[in-house]
Amino acid sequence: MEPKKAAITMLADRVLVSVPPSEGERHARSGIVIPATAQIAKRLVWSEVSAVGPAVRSVRPGDLVLFAPEDRYEVEIGSETYVILRERDLHAVASDRLDDETGLYL
């Protein structure tokens, strides 16, 4: 069951990110074609943040975050697919903001 045209608010430390485009075939630097079905060991991906919960401290909508594709839950909203993560599952944040915050949990 999908929500009817309602605003979606993320809860706690959850982060909603857009699904990165599938990479499909890739080319190695040497020119070798790597098929989309090739297994890549623990490859992290970048994706844009769409929404954050009230307990999220280091990430804002519009930031790019780095995460492991295996640690995710997918959800379809409208006709788009998103990923729900916990803030602690993020490995890095790329942002244009200049914050004095370290992003560390002390």
From TrEMBL:
Keyword annotations of the record: Chaperone
Entry-linked Pfam families: Cpn10 (PF00166)
InterPro entries, alphabetized: Chaperonin_GroES (IPR020818), Chaperonin_GroES_sf (IPR037124), GroES-like_sf (IPR011032)
SMART domains named among the record's database cross-references: Cpn10
UniProt keyword Chaperone present: yes
Transmembrane segments: none
The keyword Chaperone appears for this protein: yes
GO molecular function: ATP binding; protein folding chaperone
Subunit architecture: Heptamer of 7 subunits arranged in a ring.
Protein role: Together with the chaperonin GroEL, plays an essential role in assisting protein folding. The GroEL-GroES system forms a nano-cage that allows encapsulation of the non-native substrate proteins and provides a physical environment optimized to promote and accelerate protein folding. GroES binds to the apical surface of the GroEL ring, thereby capping the opening of the GroEL channel.
Similarity comment: family membership: Belongs to the GroES chaperonin family.
Name the record gives this protein: 10 kDa chaperonin
Organism: Acidimicrobium ferrooxidans (strain DSM 10331 / JCM 15462 / NBRC 103882 / ICP)
